[in-house]
Amino acid sequence: MVNARKQIGQATNEQRIKITKDGPYLVYGGIPITIEVIGVNSQGGSWEWKTGRSISAPEQYALCRCGSSANKPFCDGTHKTIGFDGTEIASRDPYDAQAAVLDGPEMLLQDAEPLCAFARFCDNAGTIWALIERTDDREVRKIVAYEATQCPSGRLVVRDKKTGKALEPRFEPSIGLVEDPAQNCSGPIWVRGGIRIESADGTSYEIRNRATLCRCGASENKPFCDGQHAAVRFKDQEFLNEVLEK
Questions:
Q1: Where are the alpha helices (DSSP H) in the chain?
Q2: Of the candidates 171, 189, 218, 194, which has an alpha carbon nearest to the alpha carbon of residue 66?
């Protein structure tokens, strides 16, 4: 397999996210933050990302990961009073070792299901898992490529079968706060552009172009999102209201 991280713009050494034990994400290097909204098509399926306003942040800041801060998205120390358990249990294996591979006529689809952030771009047109089997059709290939590259967590990676090259969107190092008005909830912290994520124990997870960190505190695959924000109806009320009012 061709490693996707070699094909993306990398963040600087100063731009990194440090996970603290049972505490917030410490963000270094002045990484910009925007609100990112899941927009739907005429059938109500997730279809496009709509970028909202930027959130003012200093060069270094702490993002809440317990879901209970009164100053979201920033940490206000509430994790200490609620006894938040932020134990990291996600696999440290590289993506290629975690992902199953679906072999289509012209494309390969890699799928690391534990990383699913429930953004649902993959469910259109009969689902990407069914479409991969029809990638000898040019129009189907376009849909497969589009759906896979909209996946914020990087659970899904599609590759050209002949070259092995991963089709990856181009991201500047940045953080997106996902809002999901169709589900009436707030989603994960979307980390983009090859930003290093460092564990509380000092080791780093594989650097990837796309990753989603848990923002609600309920994920069973910490530090990564597993879609639990939809089940618990997590809401960053200020930002979600702002989106719903538009």
A1: 78-82, 95-98, 128-131, 138-150, 228-231, 237-244
A2: 218
Boundaries of every domain in the chain: 9-84+169-244, 98-160
Q: Who's near 110: CB < 8 A, 6+ residues apart?
A: 1, 95, 96, 99, 100, 101, 102, 156, 157, 158, 159
* Spatial separation of the C-alpha atoms in residues 141 and 132, rounded to whole Å: 8
Q: Cis link prior to 223 (omega < 30° from 0)? A: yes
| pLDDT by residue, tens only, the chain of 246 residues | 333 333 455 799 999 999 999 999 999 999 999 999 999 999 999 999 999 999 999 999 999 999 999 999 999 999 999 999 999 999 999 999 999 999 999 999 999 999 999 999 999 999 999 999 999 999 999 999 999 999 999 999 999 999 999 999 999 999 999 999 999 999 999 999 999 999 999 999 999 999 999 999 999 999 999 999 999 999 997 877 887 776
Nearest C-alpha neighbor of 1 from the set 98, 145, 142, 141: 98
pTM of the model: 0.94
d(CA 180, CA 193): 22
If you search the block for the tokens 């990087």, which residue do you land on? 154
Phi-psi region of 190 (alpha: psi -120 to 50; beta: other; left: phi over 0): beta
* Coil/strand/helix, residue 192: strand
